[in-house]
Description:
four-stranded mixed beta sheet, alpha+beta, 13% helix, 1 helix, globular
Amino acid sequence: xxxxxxxxxxxxxxxxxxxxxxxxxxxxxxxxxxxxxHIAIMPDAHTGIGMPIDGVLATKGVxxxxxxxxxxxxxxxxxxxxxx
Length: 84
């Protein structure tokens, strides 16, 4: 795992290299005020619309439906859960 710092929160990447446009999307996410803990980038990440496909954005107090990936088309849905 590679950790990139220097943003509001770190970016944790489970790959060695990523296209520059996907990396810029990850950096943009890391500066969002509601992004929580860190941004996670999985091994097959690539440029998406607004955020990298196969990227993970945890948030605090905000739901970002686009963050589940705009090109996966696999029946994703938002489900309310209880946080303890």
